[in-house]
Fold this protein.
Amino acid sequence: MITISIDPFIFSIGHFALRWYSLIVLTAIGIGLWLTTNEASRKGFKKDDIYEIAMWVIPGGLVGARLFHVLDHWSDRFAADPISALYIWEGGLAIWGALAGGLLTMAILAWRKGWRLSSLLDAAAPGVVLAQAVGRIACVITGDAMGKPTTGPFGFAYTNPNAMVPQLGVYYTPMPVYEIIVNVGIFALLWQLRKHRWPDGMLFLVYLGLYSLERFLLGFTSSYRIIAWGMTQSQIVALIGLAVALPAIILLRRKAARQSA
């Protein structure tokens, strides 16, 4: 059992405050962009084009991430103070929302530029999952997205009054730590699989399937509000992700087998 006393604020000057959450999320975005740019370049895309797309995809992902979080916590947090939904610097980003917002923005831009979206998604997949792993470090420091209270053998308790946990001094299941471990594992797998000559889109679908399975299973340790059928918003979206990824992988494999026959 571990007690964390780190202040989520690095420093503050007047009304300006620099938080670990913001710094780590920006670092995660930078790492994801760097890897995606290199992979896209290897697939024939121009780096300048990827940077241009990123100027739209990153804001689109942040908007989606905040929107999903606000919808998930509207009744218990934002209904009484709707303007606080705009305070993105205070934390509260839903990764599924980031994926949805970023994917929609990327699809629109790829269509306008005449690019093959599936190839671009394959280039982005390793960088995205590694960025997700790095971003969860912010949750460990701030106490955001912790799981249910636990009596052991592994739990985090927070003592700093600025921590985002429901109650100080209570040990919670460190769901972000588990997600970091699994995401790093998914990244390592994708990094090896990217060398295979698979149909365009296959690598992204493998990422989507594995990440969806991870989020569905880890959702049982989550303290997030139950939406329907005894599941959280994240678990429901994860099932949708699995319902998309698994049949698509089978279809792509069959298509590749027919073409090679």
Summary: DSSP finds eight helices and six strands in the chain.
